[in-house]
Amino acid sequence: MTDLRHYDVIRTPSITEKSTLVSENNQVVFNVAKDASKPQIKAAVEALFGVKVKAVNTLIRKGKVKRFKATIGKQQDVKKAIVTLVEGQSIDVTTGL
C-alpha cells in the first residue's frame, strides 16, 4: 500500500481514559476506516510508526441517538482498532506524526 492509503486507514488515535489504561498493556487504540481489514491496519501502523505489531482487534461502536432541544440526530458509527505491540515497542500518540 502507498503512504496515502495508510493515512486513509488510520484516521485518528483514540485518546480516552480507557485507551490510556490499555497502554499499560502495550496496546494503542486508533479510530480506523470502516472498510479497513486487520491486515491493512497492521500494515498501516507498521509503516507509519515504524513498530512491530503483534495483534489487531477491531470493534464497531454503534452511533448513539442524541437530541438538542427539538432536533433529534444520530452520531455516526465508529470502527476502532486495538493494536497490540511487540514487547519493547511503543507509540507516543500525543506527539503526532
Protein described:
It is built from 3 helices and 6 strands; from the N terminus they run αβαβαββββ. The mean pLDDT is 91. It is globular, with a radius of gyration of 15 Å. With 97 residues, it is an alpha+beta fold. Helix content is 26%, strand content 36%. A hairpin with a 2-residue loop joins β4 and β5. The protein has a 4-stranded antiparallel sheet. Strands 4-5 form a two-stranded antiparallel ribbon.
In short:
This protein has helices spanning 3-9, 17-22, 38-49, and strands at residues 10-13, 27-32, 53-61, 65-68, 71-74, 78-85.
Short key terms for the protein model shown above:
97 residues; alpha+beta; 4-stranded antiparallel sheet; two-stranded antiparallel ribbon; globular
Secondary structure: elements and pairs:
Layout: H1 3-9, E1 10-13, H2 17-22, E2 27-32, H3 38-49, E3 53-61, E4 65-68, E5 71-74, E6 78-85
Antiparallel strand pairs: 1-2, 2-6, 3-6, 4-5
Helix pairs in contact: 1-3
Order of secondary-structure elements: HEHEHEEEE
Count of discrete alpha- or pi-helical segments spanning 4 or more residues: 3
End-to-end span in angstroms? 18 Å
Q: What oligomeric state best describes the polypeptide chains here?
A: single chain
User: Into which percent range does the helicity of residues fall?
Assistant: 25-40%
How many individual β-strands? Answer: 6
Question: Structural class, from secondary structure content?
Answer: alpha+beta
Poorly predicted sequence stretches spanning 5 or more consecutive residues: none
Which shape, going by the Cα principal axes? globular
Our Rg estimate from Cα atoms comes to 15 Å
Largest sheet: 4 strands, antiparallel
Mean pLDDT reading: 91
